[in-house]
Batch of 2 targets.
Target 1
Amino acid sequence: MKRPAIGIFGAGWVGVVTGACFAELGHEVVVRDIVSERIEALQAGRIPFHEPGLAELLERNRERMSFTLDAADLAPTGLMFVCVGTPPTYSGDADLSAVWNVVEQLPEQEERSLLVMKSTVPVGTGEKVRESLDSRGLAHVGYVSNPEFLAEGSAVKDFMRPDRVVVGAFAGADGETVAALYEPLEAPIVRTDVASAEMIKLAANAFLMTRISFINEIANVCEATGADVVKVAEGIGLDHRLGPHFLRAGIGWGGSCFPKDGVALKQLASNSGYHFQLLNAVIEVNELQKRRVIGKLEKHLGKLRGKTIALLGLAFKPNTDDLREAPSLVLASRLLAEGAEVRAWDPVADARHLLQGVTFCESALEAVTGADAAVIVTEWDELRSLASAEARDAMASPVLVDGRNLLDPEEARAAGFTYEGIGRAASPLAALPETEEREPQLEQ
Ligand code: UDX
């Protein structure tokens, strides 16, 4: 059966991954963007970002994919996915100007066509787009919400083997059409109204953020009481009602989605007259978590002025070059503000344009050489072997703060490092309050 052609608005990370995956499923795909350098790069076979497996997918499906600046080239497709950015505005609300530009630039189509929203938008956006289409005499353009749940670094796998596909439509038949595209993936498909589909995306992200802030607060209490958060998370996660995912304590989340979507949901609630207390706390906990490393460094080094600190990993998580809202940026800025000298290394992310005053190094070993302390900021695989005699001897003092609990504390200490993780007491007794020995009371 011939699979229908698909048009994609937006050649960003979501658009290119979505397009390449649909091409892999046998669709002809036309991707349109307004940035000519981006389109030229993609036409020449270059991908303007780092995503494992994507280059191979594009190469394999070259014949089926085209890239264009002209919205009219999407006219023959009939199925038009919106994959444009919805960054935060100064107020924290999502900026929907790129979405509205797409709605205004829709190519003329005689027959019934579908506009499918993949971008993350506030609840109620579909309703507004529907009204706008109707008022322009475009009742024959159907609207479907089909949010993406792609995580950077595993986006191709997330598309091809999704936990679920969410399809929210105003008209049942439109929902059928979009759901049918995903049939080859054999994933559960949640069919719903448009507003609920929009909320599923925001709520799923908010819940994941809540889990991370929760385990980070448990980690902080573990530090104060002598428990080990890694073991605690294992013990929690084996309860089938809770599950093991998103319970890794660390120095907080970052990235292109959580920070923006968390604030967008918070604003959406408050614009609707509701104070989302829990979400506010979840966001605040994350902000404080990014800064806790400073206290750990001061505990070992005293004042940080004039001290040299190596930041290992800058991307907001491994397997991506994305620096958006990365905890490393907050950490580096705080260290510079304290008067520390900052040396940094990341295997792919280039932060030169974002962090002035930081010395960038070619390897982790180069970064730690002469440093008073090293901080694991991103859990890159390359750092698993960091606790070596070579690294220890290269440092001015072997203080290692493991912001992602990547290393085994015993091994790191055995290798001669003063090791601190997140939520792992320095020694089983270190966090216990001092108690006086009592004389045994004789029974009367
Ligand atoms: C996320 C969602 O997973 C995805 O479904 C959505 O579409 C976009 O946002 P992404 O931002 O790419 O994807 O990364 P993800 O792997 O989910 O990690 C997000 C952040 O949480 C990272 O900063 C990561 O370091 C942090 N994290 C994750 C933790 O601190 N602990 C965990 O246990 C898991």
Note: Residues 6-192 form a domain with the Rossmann fold fold (CATH 3.40.50.720).
Target 2
Amino acid sequence: MEPIIFPPYKDSPKPALSPLQEEVLRLKRERNAVILAHNYVDEDIQLIADFCGDSLGLSFQARDTSADVIVFCGVDFMAETAKILNPEKTVLMPDAASGCSLEESCSAEELAAFKREYPDSAVVSYINCSGAVKAESDVICTSGNAVKIVEKFPKDRRIIFAPDKYLGSWVEEQTGRKMILWDGCCCAHASYDPEAIKKIKAALNAPVVCHPECPKPVRDVCDFVCSTEKMINWARENPSKTIIVATVFQMIHRLRREVPDKIFVAAPPNDIQNCKRCRHMDKNTLEKVRDCLRDMSPSIKVDPELAKKARKPIEKMLEWSKK
Ligand code: CIZ
């Protein structure tokens, strides 16, 4: 299969806003809403978002916004986190069925039982989990701050890391400490083929950046491993004109806008609709963004008691993430 190659953004035509995008922006003004979009949603949504970023940046935005309504274009745990951080606001999701394979791999009951097997452990949970799992955790992390968060604990403190075993194993490598890893993974990142990546790297003579949710054999054939937000600086500073990207395909839209003079290539295998996509993120469409603003639904609800418990480890993460 031919690689998907994106020419430099600076040389590409910039289409005017479509009538649907204009309609969304009009509704957004009427509702005094803010649109927060994850790096993994489609470009037509990214282009009309007030803020486009990773879970960490989006959490700060959700906590600090003065808008009445947050439209969260991402997946359910992200919108739930926004509601937990800012319970007075109405938080809308274009499609309430956009979940996450990592979130599905770990229930709060299972994590509670796991904690009983390893008493006296601190629990660090990746933000890709439910509010109920967050409530069972001591602190939350994202891929952008996982190393920093784990390093906050004394070296001899036993840590349970949930639910992504690949991100966990990468953090182990970076920090030199062993953790007890939950056996979950992201189905999109877990399916890269290291041999296919080696081949394209040799064919294009270009470096590969991958996400830490990729398994170790994939990470080992890549030149750099980092969160989506950190990919921007790395791509900007890398001397190569062409960069191969192994994460959910839509990240390339963000990279192209931020680093407009480079060529970006989606790493193979390009398996769903000819590129690496997240079936949950793909449930976000511009039509559904319009509909949720028009109907003020689906709106996220979180039980106040649960929210109170889950807010602590999220706020601890935000506090520990400060520069
Ligand atoms: O942290 C996030 O938002 C995810 C899921 C990936 C990344 O690295 O941005």
Note: The CA atoms of residues 59 and 81 lie 7 Å apart.
